[in-house]
Amino acid sequence: MKKRFQKLQDTVTDFYTKEGRHDLPWRKTTSSYKIWVSEIMLQQTQVSRVKEKYTSFLKKFPSLEKLARASQAQVLKEWVGLGYNRRALFLKKGAEFVMKEYNGRLPKEVAQLETIHGIGHYTARAIATFAWDQKHIFVETNIRTVYFNHFFKNKENITDKEILNLVEQTLPDKDFRQWYWALMDLGVQLKKEGKGMNRKSKHYSKQSKFEGSDRQIRAAVVRYLTQNGDTEIDRLVQCLGFDVDRTEEQIQKQYKEGMVFIKNAILSLNK
Length: 271
Fold this sequence. Notes:
- By secondary structure, the chain is an all-alpha fold.
- It has three domains: 2-8 and 137-200, no CATH class; 31-132, Hypothetical protein, domain 2 (Endonuclease III, domain 1), CATH 1.10.340; 214-268, Orthogonal Bundle (Arc Repressor Mutant, subunit A).
- Helix content is 61%, strand content 3%.
- It has helices at residues 2-19, 32-42, 47-60, 64-69, 72-79, 86-101, 110-113, 121-132, 141-151, 160-170, 176-192, 214-228, 233-240, 244-257, and strands at residues 231-232, 261-263, 266-268.
- The N and C termini lie far apart (59 Å).
């Protein structure tokens, strides 16, 4: 097995040296705040879309304190185009929490990072690894792809526990951030070559189509409000052109989540 581990390490390292995505802006910083922003943006969103938004978002909110003090409408306006707008609220609420509980600085302990709104098991360890080069064990979709291809070509229903065990055994003794970058980049390449095997994962679930979905309606509501400001609910529903009942249902859900606010039948992004 040691030979297989060494072969994986050599393959991953060689690929990253020759073809790694060394130009990604969030790989050129050790700012925990900037890395946190990138990790939330990269959730279920293509890198090409994130690169443009990452730069403009940080120009608008260059520090955690600036983000915490911004209005919800300002944050959502800057987020338009990335989708899954709740992630923007996670960042904003998380920044407010860090200002209050951690004096405006992200804590270095993963257990403390996980107390922050929107930061779970993976994100906490990714921030700690990429910001401070700490040694942690974690997986995401591209990392899974690498291990599926090297160790599980003839197996189905693979658990993350099995993957994490191999990640731990193949982790190098240093340069942890670079190792994980390399794993992710090789995973991306394998998918481009048609070798994506995430269906083998026991935890796999196919992402629903965006077109015609509730997600599309929710995104359209936020986009309209960022472009047009406070609007009567009836007018907004009419302008969007989706099914009236479905649109009103999604607006009510967004209201309960704190995504939008309603006063005298007027819909807005601010209280």
